[in-house]
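Fold this sequence, please.
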Amino acid sequence: MLIKRRDFLKISSLASASLLLPGFLKSMTFEGALNPTQKKLIVLQFTGGNDGLNTIIPIKNDIYFRERNKIAIQDSLKLNDETGINPALSYFKNLYDSGELSVMNNVGYPNPDKSHFRSMDIWQSASRSDEYLDTGWIGRFLDEECYRCQHPTQALEVDDMLSLALKGENNKAFAFKDPKKLYQTSQEKYFKSIYDHHHSHDDETVSYLYQTLGSTINNADYIFDKSKSVKTAEDYPNTKLGKDFKTVASLIKSDINTQVYYLSIGSFDTHVNQNERQQKLFEEINGAVESFVADMKKNGLFDDILLMTFSEFGRRVAQNASNGTDHGTANQMFFISGGLKKKGLLNDLPNLEKLNDGDLIYTEDFRKVYATVLKKWLNADSSKILGWKNGMYDFI
């Protein structure tokens, strides 16, 4: 069967929604689902460079209020005598008080890059700033743990396109925005006919697209079936992130084999009128996380769930002339779980007296965080996946 240009484009549109490993061409049996008590990781990406200083606030630091005389957060929710949290994250304050949230400040990497694209690549690939990798840290987890991955839904991203973080050398995660829509698209007679009647093709790209199409068709039904097998009674916000978390919750409560979920929200690129934009995004995050945690608790799953957040960089200490902040360096990460071993603030607030040309100087390497999560939460060989041998943290 010869492929025409219009066929190529249509196949590409469906194939790009999943970017699956092109080896699963036959119908699959889905055995070996996760044990209900097996640990699961949810990664929430704050895209665009969230301003960490207006998230976890140094409420007694005169430098903070002086350098941000118009955008400093004046009504933060007090965590301790020195520290507050943005009032739009009121539920995070509740989690902090109940010992179900940890905060690591000043996370970054040596020789930071202030480009959104490059810094995000560094965070997603877990590379050095002078190193370029075409695989992600979760993708390499899939490669390393492939003997456990009997089917390619071990990691899922709720998005239209697969992020670098979830691309391995031999295994890739599955990306979709809505399980039902993915299933409906995969069942269109056009796509099934194209796949059922195609022959081997000499063109490597065309062959890859056909193989990926077959994988999508074979797995879309499985994901959709699991997404609706256990309906959630929890009331989720009618927001993008609220809907994404509701999808993840439904899958977690099913017997799907997925161990890692990847979500994102943004943009936090707040060069202008920062407080209004950040507040709106935080309110969306706050509501979605509150519903998700309540759902997990009601179903006895919260102790085995770890929700981790990150952003590709923070912002500069001083505000700019547009009541915003420009690209900076180090930032904080949140960890939410019923299974935390160490709660609250895991380290000191950023040192605002010692800066590098107006930027924070990182003290915690994000790769050490990843190594900790891989080894202690996902029970994976972090040294093989990251090449990291410089110790781990003890919060999980």
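The radius of gyration is 22 Å. The domain at 5-9+44-386 is CATH 3.40.720 (Alkaline Phosphatase, subunit A).
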